[in-house]
From TrEMBL:
Protein name: Lipoprotein
Signal peptide (from-to): 1-27
Keyword Signal: yes
Species the sequence originates in: Pseudoalteromonas arctica
Keyword Signal carried by entry: yes
Keyword list, A-Z: Signal
Superkingdom field: Bacteria
Length: 182
């Protein structure tokens, strides 16, 4: 009997430290509507870079990794393309291109009832060799958490989608960005 309970404990500890992935991005309809209202010029999306140290977020010891490619930069690229496509503004051959670099990000699920996350990305819009826009855009997101890891970790995992939705909303709300993509 001791053997079975010890084996169960070891399995539980092993499973608690498994790598988990961010859920697939789900476009925010208000973001898509904002893009449709503001522009009708197609843009392309280039590389959004992300340093290796920013490509793993720890949720109480469980590594959270991007579900797209090998980096959170690729996740943000995919999210941006998804929303631009829905707004009928994406073109793989457009001269105006959005690129960027993830500067900082984290998700904190250590709180007893509330978790929070933040992200900062340096976005650049260029055409040929000219930079039309460059600015650090950031977002924060608060979400329900718990003392219980089985609640806190999945909530933190799901919060990344909403964090990126807010990041893109802040990008699309920047008048200089909108001017650059017109």
């Amino acid at each position: 009997m001791k053997y079975k309970s010890s084996l169960g404990l070891i399995a539980a500890l092993f499973l608690s430290a498994c790598t988990i992935q961010v859920p697939p991005y789900s476009a925010d309809i208000s973001n898509v509507s904002k893009l449709k209202e503001e522009s009708n010029t197609p843009v392309s999306v280039g590389k959004i870079e992300s340093e290796k140290k920013l490509n793993k977020i720890s949720l109480r010891g469980s590594p959270l990794v991007s579900s797209v490619g090998n980096s959170y930069g690729e996740y943000i690229e995919s999210a941006l393309i998804q929303e631009l496509k829905l707004a009928k503004l994406w073109s793989g051959v457009a001269k105006k291109q959005v690129t960027g670099k993830v500067i900082d990000q984290d998700i904190d699920v250590t709180g007893f009832s509330e978790g929070n996350s933040f992200i900062k990305v340096n976005f650049v819009v260029s055409e040929d060799d000219a930079i039309l826009f460059e600015k650090v855009i950031s977002a924060e997101h608060d979400f329900d958490s718990s003392f219980i890891g089985a609640i806190a970790i999945p909530n933190g995992q799901r919060s990344y989608v909403e964090l990126v939705q807010k990041l893109l909303k802040n990008l699309y709300s920047d008048e200089e960005f909108i001017t650059a993509i017109k």
